Amino acid sequence: MKKPYTVCHMMTSIDGRIDCAMTAQLAGVEEYYAALEELDLPSTLSGRVTAQLEMSLPGVFQAQKNEPFGQEGFSKKAAAKGYEIIADTRGTLLWEEDIDAAKPHLIITSESVSREYLDYLDERHISWIACGKGRIDLKRAVEILAEEFGAERLGIVGGPAINSAFLEAGLLDEISILIGLGIDGRKGMPAVFDGFPMEKTPTPLKLKEAKTYQNGAVWLRYLV
After folding, report:
1. pLDDT category, 100, cuts 50, 70, 90?
2. Could you identify which of 147, 158, 168, 184 might form a hypothetical disulfide with 162, taking C-beta atoms 3.0 to 4.6 angstroms apart as the criterion?
3. pTM of the model
4. Average pLDDT over all residues of the chain
């Protein structure tokens, strides 16, 4: 299959937690963004929860008729070097208009998304991909990203759900972890990957590169 080279790039505390409000307080946060630049990932993808916290407008889209789209499709509103991609399975997030954005938004949904929501995105000049019955078909989505949107390198920068979904689908080529100087330790805080069944065996990795910074932060890169 044709797909972008895909890297999961995250910053963690030394106990593997990724809460953004926490990691923002740690030495290493500037190195995280420098590492992201070095990875050369023009398109980055986040999950709905991360996007709702950090990117979208307040509120939830309310469809009046709620007629499902019911088929695969896409709408390309901008030809760009890279996209700010958000996985939003049923189409709930609200957005500002995207005309002339340097890094346009691209929303990936399942085919159960309402036609009204896709019309809403079109009105705001926001690109979208709809694929998968009931849930997003990630393998097909990245094929469309490569074939129709020209994506060659993709960074997954979301939370444990989207990271785990890409890992489970066999779509991650590399995992990049910037370890900041601090311990979270709070019960139930999110980790890089989470939610697999107890019987799942560990995913083997191969160390590609390890780098340390003067402030003590560590950057680890692994091939999946």
Report:
1. confident
2. 158
3. 0.92
4. 95
